[in-house]
């Protein structure tokens, strides 16, 4: 297919809704985003916290994390579909981590939540799977011009498509995005991925897209990116943990590793898997939120 710079960006993600190995795209974003499944609410636990504010202390304005795209339902006013996207508001900056798998759903959910695409300063993509990247084309078509940070290992087709519409930043090593927000840099040897690391009054918040390199290793590297700095404790790990096919023993080992790393709270969603979500809920009790689309976390601050 001939490249047309005015068309929707063509991304080198997967063509299915799963987390398969990377393949080259065969059509524009819209053509691949019309048949994504809608997934209902995952099993919940009575003691799970789902309130909007999970921490409030004296200090600056809170950092706000809003899940704008996920396959787990939470806010009935929003559409759920396979994929993930989280909008981070810190200071005056808005950072969108991943863009979900369907641009129309992403934009509809953002509109319902009151988010204007034009106000997004930065987009950070975790890895080159379509359920995390395919919403970007529709976002850029609105005229938004965010800087887009991607692992350097993304395909040339993907990167050239983004460059045709806005600024592209290739990430290899841990990189500061805006003050208080950085990425882990590229991780993994198969599916290359980066996580988002946000410093708050309460400690680090680590946001993972799918955690293909291993969610424990991603948390370890996140801590290392701010070693010796304020907020080295991990207050919250949220996002996809990629444990849908994991057995009880492996999940339990990850929970123990989280405890050893000092992880205080968790909010598993997307590809974590119902069994793993249930085990995290049982282990962390009120410090676990079974997150879904529309979930809002405000960490620190007084507003």
| Mass-distribution shape | globular
* Cα end-to-end separation: 50 Å
Output the radius of gyration.
Answer: 18 Å
Which series of helices and strands comes N to C? HEEEHEHHEHEEEEEHEHEHE
Major sheet = 7 strands, mixed
Strand content: 15-25%
Flag low-confidence runs: 1-59
Supply the number of helical segments: 8
Q: Please state the structural category.
A: alpha/beta
Would you tell me the overall average pLDDT?
83
How many beta-strand runs? 13
Helix % is: 10-25%
> Strand order within the widest sheet?
6-5-4-3-2-1-13
Describe this structure in words.
- The protein has 303 residues and is an alpha/beta fold.
- Helices cover 22% and strands 22% of the residues.
- It has eight helices and 13 strands.
- The chain has helices at residues 29-32, 103-113, 130-133, 136-141, 156-163, 215-224, 248-260, 274-284, and strands at residues 63-70, 84-90, 93-97, 122-124, 147-151, 168-171, 175-178, 181-183, 196-200, 203-208, 234-240, 265-269, 296-299.
- The strands form two sheets. It has a seven-stranded mixed sheet, with helices on one face. A six-stranded mixed sheet has the order 7-8-9-10-11-12.
- Helix 7 links the parallel strand 11 (234-240) and strand 12.
- Helix 7 packs across helix 8.
- The longest helix is centred in the C-terminal third of the chain and has 13 residues, at 248-260.
- It is globular and about 45 Å long.
- Mean pLDDT is 83; it is low at 1-59.
């Amino acid at each position: 297919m001939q490249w047309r710079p005015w068309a929707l960006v063509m991304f080198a993600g997967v063509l299915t809704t799963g987390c398969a190995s990377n393949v080259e795209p065969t059509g524009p974003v819209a053509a691949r985003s019309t048949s994504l499944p809608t997934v209902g609410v995952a099993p919940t636990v009575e003691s799970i916290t789902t309130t909007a504010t999970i921490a409030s202390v004296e200090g600056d304005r809170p950092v706000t994390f809003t899940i704008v795209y996920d396959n787990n339902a939470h806010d009935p006013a929003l559409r759920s579909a396979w994929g993930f996207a989280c909008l981070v508001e810190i200071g005056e900056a808005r950072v969108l981590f991943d863009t979900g798998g369907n641009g129309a759903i992403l934009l509809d959910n953002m509109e319902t939540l009151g988010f204007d695409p034009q106000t997004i300063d930065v987009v950070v993509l975790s890895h080159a799977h379509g359920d995390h990247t395919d919403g970007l084309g529709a976002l850029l078509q609105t005229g938004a011009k965010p800087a887009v940070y991607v692992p350097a290992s993304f395909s040339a087709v993907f990167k050239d498509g983004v460059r045709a519409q806005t600024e592209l930043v290739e990430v290899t090593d841990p990189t500061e995005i805006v003050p208080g927000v950085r990425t882990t840099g590229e991780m993994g040897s198969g599916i290359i991925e980066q996580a988002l690391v946000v410093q708050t009054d309460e400690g680090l918040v680590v946001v993972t897209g799918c955690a293909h390199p291993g969610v424990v290793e991603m948390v370890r590297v996140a801590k290392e990116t701010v070693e010796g700095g304020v907020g080295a404790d991990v207050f919250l790990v949220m996002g996809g943990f990629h444990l849908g096919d994991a057995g009880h023993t492996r999940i339990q080992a990850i929970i123990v590793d989280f405890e050893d790393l000092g992880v205080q709270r968790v909010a598993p969603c997307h590809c974590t898997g119902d069994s793993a979500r249930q085990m995290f809920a049982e282990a962390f009790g009120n410090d676990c939120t079974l997150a879904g689309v529309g979930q809002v976390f405000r960490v620190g601050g007084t507003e």
